[in-house]
Amino acid sequence: MKPIRMMKTLSLALSVCCLNTASLQAAPISAAESRFLVLKEGNAPESGVFTRKQTKVIQTQADYKAELSRYTSAAPGTVDFSKGRVLLIDMGPRQSGGFSLKVAAVNISPNAVTVNLELVVPGPQCMVTAVLTNPYQFIFIPTQKEILMSEKLVAAAC
Q1: Global confidence as pTM
Q2: What is the residue range of 56's domain?
Q3: C-alpha separations of 147 from 40, 107, 114 in Å
Q4: pLDDT confidence of 35, banded at 50, 70, 90?
Q5: How many domains does the chain have?
Q6: Which pLDDT tens digit goes with each residue over 102-118?
Q7: Quick one: which of 49, 81, 45 has its CA closest to 63?
């Protein structure tokens, strides 16, 4: 890899890994709608009140704050909703540990963006914790197009 290309790659990696979600509004967002940023994720709501399986497109700061407060006491960062939207992905209550969510890809078409989601479940040989979980993620997607979901169950290899 050439030194200049390596510096661009390192610069992009640092800007993505070190982005403070509290300053998301001021952060430059690439025109590439296939990029996304996980704003908040967890294995269960802090309150212990479990939620139902759902996906929800959030289009305003007030709605983001309200939804996030159902999951955590953390203050939401400022999101520039003129540049994109927040997607809430909630796996719903699960009977043990070992469940998780993963955005595998974001595909772009002329009229929509499709989020390809993997719902990871424990494989048959996995040892899991005996605790109720409710995995969730809040993801920023830099698009104003319609957001579609594609879900796939994936068994974890342990």
Answers
A1: 0.76
A2: 3-155
A3: 19, 10, 6
A4: confident
A5: 1
A6: 999 999 889 999 999 99
A7: 81
